[in-house]
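Sequence in, structure out.
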Amino acid sequence: MNHPRHNAGFSMIELIVAVLILAIVMGGAIAGWLYVLRGERMQSIQHELDMDVRKALERLKAELRLSSMDKIHFYPDGPGPYTAISFPLARDDDGDGVIELDVYDHILWDQTVVYHVWQSTPHQLRRTVFDPRDLDLTTAQRQQQLADVVTAGGGAGAANGANATTTAIFENLFTWQIHGKGAVFDAYSPTLARALGVSLGSFLLSSGSHDFKFTVIDRNPASTGYKVGLDTLVMSPSGLEREGEAQTVAAQSGATASADYRAAGSWSGNYHLLFPATAAGASFTLSMENDRWEETNFRAAGAKNEDTLVEFDTSLAPKDFVMRLQPAGDTWYAMDQTLDYTGGWTTNDTLQGSVVRVLVRGKTMMEGSAIKNNGPLNWIWFVASASRWLRITAAYIAEAADPLSYTPDAVAGTEKQLYFSGNPDVDIPPTYYALGMLGSGQSFWIDKEKSYLVTFRVTQAYSGRCDSRYWTELHTGTGSNPPPPGCYIIPGTNGAVVGDVTAATWSTKTNMVVDSRLYAVNRLHLLAPSNGLFTSQTADTQLSAPAYQTMTWNSIRPSGTAVDLKVRTADNEDMSDAAPWSNLTAMASGGSITPGNRRYVQFQALMRASSDGWNVPSLKDVTIRWTGEYRAADIGGKMTTGPDYGIYELMVDNKPLVKGVSIDLTIFEDLMTIGGGSSNRLTSSATVEVEPRNTGK
């Protein structure tokens, strides 16, 4: 019997179910694969973004560190934040990392680098390099060069554009901001002192006057107060210091700024400008020009005095350093020459009938320099013994024949007789003195470089009137130099005669003896020299062709005295190419000047005494002004610090200073989902802060 056959297989329903199961499995696998792929893609893009941010900022930071803060320009103009920056790069010819300098040790700025944004789709961070840098561009022209690069997207059309090359650092969606780090100074220290070389930041100054506002913002936790103290300030591109207390306080709030006397002498000018704030928020504003040279202390290296001196005049209110014509006064003391500050007295008619010759040693003589000043002789002070009289019968002064070595010989014809109240002789009581003066119409100039001989004869006729005070010469000689004499004597017992007083040559006299004691002659007093000079140090304007405007000064001029000034300029720092002073006309009063538009400037003060030699003038300060160039200036100075001083910030013309650069960069990339329709934004951000380290020389 035959049975029917059945074929093995899937029914249609089973097949459909199997296909559905396979589709579900495949869909899950594909979805998982796509998820992994999308994650890997996101991770790769994030890594690229991070790398772009890091590379861009590290490169910019490295370059900025080798630039100079006072040569950096920002775009757009104003307080920021900024979107573009321009700065110089120094030359490194051999690639050793050492900056190349010129013969004056000034940095050779080789390139100008500009980082800027170009608005494209997507936009770009670009780097434009001007190589070589145009060293002749002014500050205003460099600011315009930066603006032109931002507008054009590169150097084409900008100054020095023929030497410009532009590259894209990266291309993406991004935001970037450049900020200037503000000027804040913490003036706390455990003891009252000065902080030297404080840098508060940089600011782009135009010509004319500017407002420098100091605001107290806080205090150090260790401080007990909020004071502000300014010793000297550097507030212009020339970098010339100005005394804080000499500046004009244009406004103040919360306290009153004033010149505070610092008797210890560590502060420049012995003062600082003190603002005794008692709380945060107090402020004061100084109005100062760009640019000028204010000379107030007259003590800078390179200044030269000729019969003038710088002294701190405590008779003024306020006390002040002045440059003064050498006034009348004592120029030589026996104790200073001998180093014997005690002295003694002779007894028993020690000098009876003797002729005594005292060598007054000047600067060029061995063991000299006891004569301090130049000027016309006024009197010579002779002193008697403590218990016995001294009778002088004749006295003279003459120039020593040898300016270098000890000598008893005088230059023939230079002798001048001294008189005591009009008489050639005098009786001096015990412990008293007498003044030997020149005769009417006579003069004798004392030059501190030279040496002089004061010769006098003691009475032979009167016992009990032949003793004086004395000072023992304590110099012992140095090397081959012999010890100096106290004085030379021809004793009365050795046959001294009246003619010995005026004899020019004593070195051949066999009756002369050298004594270790200096007798009777106590001091020399001079009148003021008829005129004197003060030649200032050289000031560097830092400009190749400054437009000088005025020179003004303040002086004290007693009746019959005068102070005139001259000014000159040069291209060389040593003033070797300046006009000779003798070719220049002195100014009797301050006003406009036209000394030539050259970089270095110097002044000379001519001072004249009254005709009687008793009144002298003083110069208190000198100011030379020129048109300040529009450029960045390093702002800072010497600041007072102390246990009750606060933290303060400085703004110029109500804008913050720039002490460094802070840059924020964020890069975006939108990652589309599979199939489109939505996106995920990936970001990478970084911030760097840089303080350029070069000096900008």
